[in-house]
Amino acid sequence: MTALRARVISETRLWLDTPYQHQASERGAGSDCLGLIRGVYRSLYGSEPIAVPPYTPDWAERSGKETLLEAAKIYLKEIPLHRTQPGDVLIFRMHPGALCKHMAILTSPNMITHAYWGRAVVDSYFVPYWNRRWVSSFAFPEIEKKTL
């Protein structure tokens, strides 16, 4: 496991039990699934790449653009599903024909950490329920070393 992946997992674990709050990204205070990814990103790189526009929490939303998926393709490194490793971001399409509206971080080969509506940031086993809805995987980009 690379040092970056270990950092991702370590930071992700710190978010456990953060209460669910739509559009929030504050460890210990409130977060949704995107907020978890944003928070881990901030801890790795110091800031977020863009201000996040408003979005709905509706997992069955069918109209509009694949904003979540397209943003992930810009700011993270897309990888084939079969190459996914702990420390990677997983994106899910929760209903057939719906937009991709859920994210998690794979923290072990059979465990994901994600913000669960109405509850908190939690660990869940990566069981067939999640596997059937899994559509994309992304790695956090390597941290560039600045030269003096």
Automatic annotation (TrEMBL):
Matching Gene3D superfamilies: endopeptidase domain like (from Nostoc punctiforme)
Gene Ontology molecular function: any one: cysteine-type peptidase activity
Pfam families listed in its UniProt record: NLPC_P60
UniProt entry keywords in alphabetical sequence: Hydrolase, Protease, Thiol protease
Protein name as it appears in the record: NlpC/P60 family putative phage cell wall peptidase
Family the entry assigns: Belongs to the peptidase C40 family.
NlpC/P60 domain mapped to chain residues: 2-141
Species annotation: Litorimonas taeanensis
Superkingdom field: Bacteria
BP GO terms, sorted: proteolysis
Stored InterPro entries: NLP_P60_dom, Papain-like_cys_pep_sf, Phage_pept_NlpC/P60
Range of residues in the leader sequence: none
